[in-house]
Amino acid sequence: xxxxxxxxxxxxxxxxxxxGAKNVISFGDWFNAFSLFAAIGLGRNVIITNRMGPxxxxxxxxxxxxxxxxxxxxxLVVQTDRAKEIQSKRYGIRRVEVIPxxxxxxxxxxxxxxxxxxxxxxxxxxxGQLDLLKAYVALNDRTWSIHLVxxxxxxxxxxxxxxxxxxxxxxxxxxHQTRLTDLYQNAGIFVLLSYxxxxxxxxxxxxxxxxCTIASxxxxxxxxxxxxxxxxxxxxxxEINILTxxxxxxxxxxxxxxxxxxxxxxxxQDFSKINQVRAFDQLLVS
Length: 286
Prior knowledge:
This protein is an alpha/beta fold. The protein has helices at residues 2-19, 32-38, 60-69, 81-91, 128-139, 154-164, 181-186, 201-208, 222-225, 240-251, 254-268, 273-285, and strands at residues 23-26, 45-49, 75-78, 96-98, 116-123, 145-151, 171-175, 189-192, 213-216, 233-235.
């Protein structure tokens, strides 16, 4: 590892010399300190970014290096206002900019939405999916189904739960998927179950596709996308009873689902990719 790290350091430093670019952007907490070290003495503007959950802990070595080097950065870019607050205190940085992720606003299909509850998460490393299954059992409404996209350690636990409660006809496991538009636009309700987020991309994509949404009010991001009861619904992470109540309200009120889905799509317009690009462009010339 030491040999590889040294080789990579000199490779990056040499590349910065050859390219001669004024600005360097490091995308991620794992690489920020490395990028700052590689640019020492080269007269570059180094912009670092926080792409993880702002409260996430790195290894002790990374934390020490970040606390040592972050003060050298010209700017720190985070994705949410909550992340700005946390990271500023954590590393003693004042030069922090908030640039949320962006999304496209796809054309909506002229089809009615299904009676299904959609979850999209790349890696199931938490117990949120199990929370939803428990809420579904409490609902006792088998006219709706659950569609789970993603993979991870919790899938086996969820499959065992589904088998135990006889839900194999009601819960669909999709695994990893790359084309999600049809799933979003067929969903009756989209649910974000995270216990923490860097930025909830799947939630933003669901809103852009006009989904009625329920999201855990975790750190950080959902509360900056959703105004509870207006363009979506928030619940405390892990509070299964509240999640169940939110689901029950939406399941029995089609008009409310349509109203919130339309409001969610309007809110997603504020997070267009062109706005994201313009924000970075402005950052690079400031």
